[in-house]
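Q: Rrf2 family transcriptional regulator, please. Structure only.
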Amino acid sequence: MRRDSRLSSVLHLLLHMAEHDGPMTSEMLAKAMTTNSVVVRRIMAGLRDRGYVRSEKGHGGGWTLACDLATLTLRDVYEALGEPSLLAIGNRTEAPGCLVEQAVNAALGPAFDGAEAFLLERFGAVTLAELSADFHERLAGRKQSCNPEMVHAE
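A: Structure for Rrf2 family transcriptional regulator:
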């Protein structure tokens, strides 16, 4: 099963934007993510609608941050993406009248709900400023400059 990596991708893009002085085009961001600029525009739309980023068209335009990273949480970004499914597994619902299916779902449902609630609580407790600080700590250890268009090293 393919995993939905949009949250990770958007966080990645936002941190690149925070490091860049001035607007970043969809093409620049796409290059940093090894994807297509159409994909970048599509996933950034929800962030723009929430006021987290701005986009300017034309020469010298592109995407810029419109908020303070210290106030933007992982949960905010997750919600801006339309709250994609957090878990790749779920309850079977093909035979709702089946007593076995009901028993299995009664056992699994609270566990899934608890796992999702834990993730959402954690997402709400982590700001992008904290991610940025972690990045800078890692960068200082590498003695490598930050270039959003660089090829990502392992």
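A: Brief note, in case it's useful. The beta strands are 53-56, 62-65.
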